[in-house]
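Crash report, auto-generated. Payload:
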Amino acid sequence: METNLAPLLPSAEVVLTALSVLLLDLFIRKDEKGLLVWISLIGLALAGGMALFLWGSHEGAFQDSILLDDFALFFTELFLGAAAITILSSVHYVRETNIHEGEFYALVLLSTFGMILMAAANDLILFFLGLETMSIGVYILTGMWRERSQASEAAMKYFLIGAFATGFLLYGIALIYGAAGSTHLGRIASALGQTKSHGSIILSAGVFLLFVGLAFKVAAVPFHFWVPDVYDGAPTPVSAFMAVAVKAAAFAGWARIFLYQLSPLQSEWTLPLKALAILTMTVGNLLAISQSSVKRMLAYSSIAHAGYLLIALVAGGESGGQALLFYLLSYAAMTFGAFGVLIALKEGENDHEAYSDFAGLGFKRPFLGMAMSLFMLSLAGFPPLAGFTGKFYLFRSAVVAGHIDLAIIGALNSLLSVVYYLRVIVMMYMEEGGAEGKPFARAPYLYLAIAIAVLGTVYLGVLPAPALDLSRISFISLH
Amino acid sequence: MAIGLTHYLVLGAILFSLGLYTVLTRRNAISVLMGVELILNSANINYVAFSHFSSGNVDGQIYAIFVIMLAAAEAAVGLAIVLAIFQLFHTIDVGAVETLKE
Amino acid sequence: MTHPFFPVLVLFFFAGSVVLALLLIAQMVGPKRPNPVKDEPFESGNPPKGDARIRFPVKFYLVAMLFLIFDLEGVFLYPWAVLFRRLGIFGLVEMGIFLTVVVVGFVYAWKKGALDWE
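Recovered output after restart:
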């Protein structure tokens, strides 16, 4: 039996790293745990190198149920980067909170493996397995801060709701399998072409359940109610990881399944998806305004951003796909940055997550203040930052696809969002007496993560052309 | 009357509804978990039934094994989380565990 | 047919009505004549002794979880064992990788003291 194993290399490397971290953690002393950070980062870098090496190869493994095209590789690099930044920004956090370091890094790596599988899966059941690998890892990560009751509560909510959504997804896949005779996306697509009447009831039901399951995972309104509590209760680096990587993975699956393979059904799901996008943006933004905790505000803002991303899915086609991938990149940079600054404010028992804790930060810690202002402006969509460019292409793709109303609602929504993003900046520069924030010497890794986020936010805003090209090439490789 | 695909599908649908009912009405975390397991198993019935009657391959039966495995992993993690909840709150009532509020 | 998603609506209507019907039937048809004997947890005729809600040591849960996981890993060995010859060296290597991952988990559980009873 000949099998081409090259497409498995990056994900295998990630698993290998996770297992080594897990094993090594058992045999080293407590003061040597810094080693684990380096092993994880080197493992991620190696996996990234392999993915880069495979770029453009478009190879498949196991009868093409794993397809490492440029689309999958783009997301692989995104997930690896997200995992690296999560690990960098959690080094100090886990020490302060007595979270077990070895398990924490290993779980981040294992969930990353699940995400890579999700992006590369060309078979619904494999996609499902990747999703579960990712989700189970993140459930545990959410509850890892055992002493904090909110973390356990968040873990329970996330787990129960996640498992519920999983059930929907699985049942949907079962129905699609019944209607198409296979879970392989290519064969489903060809089955769609032939039989329009026979089995279409089962197929529609399956697609609908799949749709709902994925909507839970990307936290689209009305399936969003768990997000604020879970993001609020989880350790902050994990919230960032969830907001960026988990969401990106779900969107990767959505793009591959719906935008590409199930595109013959596009006319049927465009309308519900459009409603979902409008609801998600509007509700997310409206609820974000009334928050008093910045962490909760960021949770609602992540819902709103899921709404913006849904616009790209409605628009579809080349411009929609390009906008989706590019916006995910920009969103990753600015969200990681914002959560990173939040981590920097934590001191011992005090989380310092309220707006008032940001008071005067701009003068006490100029770098943190500047960085946070940048992220807030970018999230709100001010030029020339990443958020503006991303939104511009999102709305443009909507207009290209003839959904002008969607673009207008999106633009109005980003105007609305300015209110609560600017409030943070006002706090930082016009009020006094908040939290102190960590000085650089105490948290070099965290500052490195924030600096990378700043660079990303500015670079993607000022020089978007290379990243846009990359997004377009990656998306085209689906076809 | 011969037992055919439809019977299995109806059985799966009933099990799914029962699972849904359990998840939506129960307040005990363990019961909710059991409801989720019911939903997963209803999908399993569908996989095996489709595999036997309509698809002409054994893929569905393999998927059922995958899903059983996953359900076990999920149950283990779920039990661990519920245990942590009990240690902190001394209850596993989903509604009573409410510290996260705006 | 009408709208293509119409059958989905029917499915959900069906699911909802089953739930509603069950609830209503239990409410209406079920006679409610409680008496002390009926309220006992076991209707076997034996007088109940002690409380059913005793607390188990938490160790049992740990053992149960570990058993659940490792027991089900075994399921994957059966199809492989049945087709051992046909899968050949590729199957052997693949199963080796699978078992390595399982063993890492086992070593982890062991070193963490999950297998110690005391």
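Post-recovery validation: Chain C is about 60% helix and 0% strand.
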